[in-house]
Amino acid sequence: MLIVSLFMGRYQVPVSVLIDDIMNTITALSFGTAIPASTHHTVLFSVRLPRILAAMLVGCALSVAGVSFQGVFRNPLVSPYILGVGSGAGFGACLGILLFDNHIMIQLLAFIFGLLAMFAAISMDKASKGTGTLVLVLSGIIVSSIFTALISLAKYAADPYDELPEIVFWLMGSLSSIRYSDLIWITVPMFIGMLVLFLLRWRINILSLGDEEARSLGVNVDKMRLIIIICATLVTSAAVSISGVIGWVGLVVPHISRMIVGPNYNRLLPMSMVCGASFMLLVDDLARTVSVTEIPLGIITSLVGAPIFAYLIKRGRMGWN
Amino acid sequence: MELILEVDSLSYSYGKENVFENVSFSLRSGEVMCILGPNGSGKSTLIKCIAGIFKPATGSVHIMGENTASLGAGKIARRIGYVPQQNEVVFPFTVLDFVVMGRTPHISIFASPGAKDMKIARESLEMVGIGDLAERTLGSLSGGQRQMVLIARALAQEPTLLLLDEPTAHLDFGNQVLVLEAVQKLASSGISIVMNTHMPDHAFLVGSRAAALCNRRLLAVDEVAAVVNSEIMSSVYGVNVAVREIEDIKRKVCVAMLK
Questions:
Q1: I need a labelling partner for B135 at 20 to 30 A (CA). Which of A30, A108, B193, B237 fits?
Q2: How far is CA A315 from CA B118, B168, B215, in A?
Q3: Residue A127's CB: how many other CB atoms inside 10 A?
């Protein structure tokens, strides 16, 4: 799929050209001469490949976060944005666009504000001495609505000819301006978060039994839940910071995976990672091939994801009843 | 017989109100303790305090001579299996996947259950007589089968003490008897059991000892016959209760009488 995606796009590259290109590169490297620059080379390896990798990473990240949140909150309708991470990161990006208009700062602020939103929700939950997850969900809604209001404020304050369209496009989600340098820095938080979630995947089963039962099985529920929430948020924030707010992936992919391998997180979590990466790659291929201009990713995930979800509900095989 | 559980002047409070206070009893290996008492008397809370799910306000719980307050959740879970009254499982795990979760206290934090854990889970299912349900999903089971699955999960913890919170609630007559038979079998294999029940008669069937939790206190911890008698039961439940010996089946029964 990765290979096929390389050749998809408005600029046609025949397979033979790629092979020539690779051969040239190898020859150049072995002889120590400069790699010959060609348009094909640029399109394939500087434009498409980072974008393909980014799509797979983002899809994988959102899905793994979604499936983890669903287990921790014991609710299959939870998405990665449950604690306000999406609107937090959105506001961070707005700030970046308004104050700096700098690629790196936009990503960095989006990432930081995504985490900030989660910590705000968690500390609100702690302050209310809430038990279980109900207060946490409510805190997430509160945080989310505050940041949504702040995003509106940012839009209102933005320059309508320059900054406003940028904000709007960012919020709709896109991978069109991805470069290797972006990929490298988000890989670190993503990898850490994913690794921990992957290792803890069997324990998510236990958390999904409910607090009292998990405690009776010897699990430190509060600590375990906090670790999983932090890791899932880390992964989500990193994804959102390069792709914008892309909905539905983190909700639909866990369901599809649950239908394939069942609810046991031992198999479900790796399956969600693979499905998420494939789904996002497919969506991004659509985004850059369907029309002459790019379609924002968030629009396609909603247009594709929502009907899939409706179909799953109709088939009644949600994997949770 | 070895002393397994010692509960010493235990009390628990929600806010300022004490749910129960000064509860003390002890249990030897293979004994079944039936705790009776009206709705809302704190039977479930008492069980959860012993299981380490709730933290008691005062008093102590010793399991095999060690104080649970200093044992840590993981070590408690290797000794005490807790079977909740009702559980709502959000995701439709298979019975085997669910029962193997009882192995949690024996599995390190980043690991998943291995072949040995699966084997113990299957043996636990066999022990309560539902080995054939292993591949079914939880949602497809009847109430009685679900109760057995919960007991099997607690057995997979390989506990020395089993806490059952009203294991026969919501079950039909036949399934109640099946659960009691399982309890008897487990007790005879050496596991100590504390069981909450709404049916005083169950104490005659499986109990080696009984007690009644009423008005925040544990009354009359004693042999079943000394606790389940018409005076104590009538005062605990506030209705007329008669206890009679049935000659041809050679046991006592506890029945209610309407006014």
A1: B193
A2: 32, 35, 52
A3: 10
CA distances for A37 relative to A11, A47, A134, angstroms: 17, 14, 57
> Rounded to an integer, what distance in angstroms lies between the CA atom of residue A119 and that of residue A136?
11
DSSP state of A12: -
pLDDT digits (tens, 9 = 90+) for B90-111: 889 999 999 999 999 999 999 9
Q: What is the pLDDT of residue A321?
A: 47
DSSP letter for each residue of A99-154: II--HHHHHHHHHHHHHHHHHHHHHHHHHTT--SSHHHHHHHHHHHHHHHHHHHHH
Sort A64 into a burial class: Cβ within 10 Å, 0-12 / 13-18 / 19+: buried
The residue of chain B with its CA nearest to that of A261 is B93
Q: What is the DSSP letter of A96?
A: I
Contact B75 A218 (CB under 8 A): yes
Average pLDDT over every residue of A214-226: 93
Provide the residue ranges of all domains of chain A, joining segments of one domain with +: 2-6+49-315
Query: Per the CB < 8 Å rule, is B48 touching A205?
Result: no
Question: Is-above-0.90 flag for pTM?
Answer: no
Nearest to B142 by CA among B99, B166, B175: B175
- Boundaries of every domain in chain B: 3-257
**Nearest alpha carbon to residue A58 among A230, A221, A278:** A278
Instruction: Give ipTM to 2 decimals.
Output: 0.92
Superfamily covering domain B3-257? P-loop containing nucleotide triphosphate hydrolases (3.40.50.300)
The alpha carbon torsion through A234, A236, A239, A240 (nearest 10 deg) reads -110
Q: Which of A76, A217, A263 sits opposite B93 (nearest CB)?
A: A263
CATH architecture label of A2-6+49-315: Orthogonal Bundle (1.10)
Rounded to whole angstroms, the Cα distance separating A77 from B83 reads 28
Asked whether the beta carbons of residue B97 and residue A202 sit closer than 8 angstroms, the reply is: no
Residues 149-188 of B with CB under 8 A from A: 157
Total beta-carbon pairs less than 8 A apart between chain A and chain B: 82
Among A216, A219, A228, A259, most B C-beta atoms within 10 A, so best to mutate, is A216
